[in-house]
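Dissemination and training. As part of the outreach component of the grant, students in the summer workshop were shown how a complex can be specified as a set of sequence lines and then modelled as a single object. The example used during the hands-on session is reproduced here so that future cohorts can follow it. Participants entered these lines:
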Amino acid sequence: MINRTLSDRIFSAFNYIVATLFTLICFIPFYTMVIASVTEKRALIRFGYQFWPSQFTLEAYQWVLRGQAVLTGYAVTVFVTLTGTLLSLTLMCALAYAMSNKKFKPRNPIAFYVYFTMIFSGGIIPWFITMRAVGLYDNIWALIVPMLMNPWWIFVLRNYFNNLPTEILESARIDGASDLQILTRIVLPLSTPVLATTALFVSVAYWNDWWHGVMLLDFADFRPLQVIILRIINNIRAIREAMSVPGSTITIDMSQIPALSIRMAIVVVTIGPIILVYPFVQRYFIHGLTLGAIKG
Amino acid sequence: MSRKITRRQMLYVIGMGTATGLVSACQSATPTMAPATQPPAATEAAGATEAPKATEAPQPTEAPKTGEPKVITYVDSAGFGSPPYRESQDPIAKALSEKMQSEGINLEFRVMLLDNPKEKYPILYASGTPFTWAFDAPWYFMNSLRDQGHLRPLETYMDQYPNIVKAISQDVIDFNYQLGHLYGLPTGFYVGGGASGVVYRKDLLDKYGMPEPKNLDDLELFLAEVQKTEKDMIPFGADDTFNVGYMSGPWRKWLPKKHGYNPGGAMVGGGIDDGLTNPPKYLGSEDLEGATVAYERARDWYEKGWVNKNVLQLKVEQTVEELFNPGKCAALAYNEAAMKAELTIQPGLQSFIPEGKAAGFAVEGPMEGATIQFSILKQWNFQVFNSHMPEEDTLAGLQFFNWLLGSQDNIDLYLFGIDGTNYKKLPDMKYADIEGVDGTTNYRRRWYVAGVPGQFERVPEQATENFMKTLAYITDLNNYMPNPLEKFEPERKVKEAELAQLTAASKEFSLPLAAGQVDVKEGMDKLTKALKDAKRDDVMAEFQTQLDKWIGDNKSEYEATLKKAQTKYEDWKNTKFAEYIKAHPEKAGTA
Amino acid sequence: MAVGTDIKLAAKPSRSRSGAQTFLEYARQNWSLFLLALPGLFLIFMFSYAPMFGVVIAFEDYSPRTMFASPFVGLRNFRLLFESPIVGRLVTNTLGLNFLFIVATTFCSVLIALLLNEVRSTLFKRVAQSVMFLPFFMGWTIVSMVLFGLIDYNVGTINALITQLGMERIIVTDKPELWPWILTLIRIWKGTGSGCIIYLAVLVAVDPQLYEAASIDGAGRWQRMRFISLPALVPIIILLVLLDIGKIFYGDVGMIYAVIGNQANLFSTTDVIDTYILRALQSNSNYGMSAAVGLSQSVLGFICVFGSNWLVKKYSERRGEDYRLF
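and obtained this result:
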């Protein structure tokens, strides 16, 4: 008995030490990044990354957040993320449930059909042509629809559904529940941890997506946040390039632009909202619904 | 279940609310979007006002109804100094259209901004997206787009647009045919190559009481002094582009008997040797005379500790902003250093070190008489026209350029924006920035990306005398030899895969050489082996055949130009170079 | 939301009497499952299969005038990769790095998930897990800035420490043999916090009664982790590794380009197929050739995944389970 508690204690101590160390390793670079974003530009270049800003300034944030564009960008991104995540989760769950159903004969060919798209793609030109052909160009759905089905998460969902206790599903079926009812009343409530995980990553993918905004929006005058941020970075780079290429007589003083802190501030600005929402999602996979509770 | 649905519905409602908010925000955010002139059926605004609904893709170049202006669309590959913001671009586009229409040219100028030009730009062609013209260049996508048939040949239209021909000059147009066609409007100005130079800390130089360096040998004395005197300072800051190798890389220019010449930038890992005295012949880079000069210097500096150790890890902007400006290095390589040191680098340096002073010199020292170069009439930058559009679209685009290049006022509007808002017009082709206008969002279009020959761009009021002198020198054909091979350009499609492999191999092994990170002998052996493995010699043999054929086909013109070049060379040797040798006796026998 | 109504309509016919299943009923049930699957399958078709006709450009001298009916050139476009003098090195580096990445990130994510699962303090668990997730959001450019802030020769923290200890500075960027390990460490740092979430999600669903029963039988926490938690993760580990294997011929170009960039002296151990192609086609853009390379990577990855799927099938059949991908 004493032995067991001792080994348990050692185990527990080991747990805490490893987890704390890794947490610190993850935290310190992030912390220095946040500090860099509020350090005066010249101090940052002169002294490098610091643990406390030698000269505090919010200049970089003023730079990133100035103008209406960023606010509009936030609105676009929030809409895209919410709508996209919701639709995506609905569609993926429906498909994954069908794929997990042992009664569903074509489930393996379908799994193959889904998986195939993970490896093979036709390339960017036919993709672009298809997008234009179906009208996913220069409108907000172009940011949502192409990302709805993600094979990776379909498989994760299928696997999770696969491992649910078959007895519960079977008894529901015997009670005359339809597939839709089984999915919404039994499978989904039992799967909150994986649903939360999927929702988290799908929404982060929508939130961070700049690719569709760049490729599929040309004349529309709204842009998601990431594209607006890309423009800030592009613009700074363009001015720098223009300074060094032959033939240019650009007279902008680059040292007035806090280029380095802007990069850091951008990370903070984009992930800020995610960090705020995160704890609400986190509880589902830190201590989610347990199977026992439902069984009992 | 019901609880779930309510939550879902709630999210949906939030989503829709956001959409509405977004739409109204879009409308209020960009009041300048609505064009004052009658827009054609599908406008840019359409996408936004009906955002949540799927709308038709706008057809920016669709056929106009009678009386309505024809829309011409310019693809701005944001990334060359014009701000990628509609708020910056649209007022000028509108002003240009209005001015054009008031002068009887019924066109509407529209700009398509690309946020990710390097990927998006070539796809526009490949996917058949409508637009009229774009900026492009042989160092960008022009060669491959041309080979794939995306660019419209313009030679047959030039007669109809006298202003274009007059501004660009018949000479420049003649020299910029590629494979028998004119694939874009060249943007001519400089006729001298070799823009590379060195920017250094003049205040330190004065402190040491040293004379101004005029070439790299002089500079070495300065660097040695910096290493001795300044603790914690790297004498020479370098990055993956601007390093010691960059300043006299063997491929960059064709100086008599010194470097290989590479027509069209087509060859990788080799160049044409001499050409002035012997029949032109492609040689591998290792066999070109002086091929290793730059690498040896790079290695020497690196070993002496004059250069930072992380050369290839840094990017261009970092050397200036993170090493030179804060006083961590005392010199660096830069384009047009003599012109730009005072104009563009000095302010940054002084923001860290108030007493700091930057000065520069051109590495080759053309003005001093140390070398003479071949003139370069083949241009680096072009305006190319989309061959997938109907012919009248290209004609409308050319009509725009004909109008634009017909008056300095039009050019000023196109390059600088509105006088009094974006810039202040000064006499003598100078301009001033307006106090309080944010330079990063202020409208500008650089001449070399805008298709306007450089002499029509105003110069900043701060431009120094040195700047103006250098500018005058490098734009005067009389200071250079005509290049007898300049009109030749090899057809590269036959060796596409090999050229791609060569590009990869060359980059891998020449970058460390240029940075000085590897022993020159060892590095050159590795480079040569990698190039040979990638079938460099096959490609060279193919290009040699093409070159011989070209010389055969153009014999009289080739020989006449060669004669002129030889005369010019002898002339230079007996006058300017002789004077230079008198001042630098140690350099005797270098020409 | 249109999907929801589809589902409801589809669900109706199967809402019939309970009891023995007639054939008709079986078909109806399949029908509703089909309808559930259909919207997703359609979208996948639209956005993944419809553009797949584009693979033909790998065999063509592509020109947009003739589009996908451009002249057929056979395997000419494949020469860029397969006739490259360094194709051996590229394949070795790509496979080697990806193998390291898959093993390291899977191991670390599972380990951290198991450890966090055993931590009693909810607050600690939540805070630690949130903080570990942060690196996931840092782009590769920023990661590379932070990395060189550490290891840079002139200004790096590590070299500053080394000189304080009176030793010679190290030029890390001169030692290609170190870089596969450095890249792996970065991958672990960036991916563990996000990777462990999915394992945590599986672990919270493990029936607590199992743990209780084990406790009563005298199992310590280590044993419970070893014999209950870990086996619960096996199916998902197999799935995720299988999914990764399909991409094993694709180099992580985003990371390698941002971190290695133009440091050519490190290419011998870090140059992968994708970075090579990026470098080779930088000034020679050619869609036919890039399509050919992509197709080769896909086919090779597909063969690997087919093989491993078969192995998994054999393995799981012996255990009376079904872990295969398809």
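Chain A touches chain C through 107 residues (CB under 8 Å). Students were then asked to discuss how this feature might be tested experimentally.
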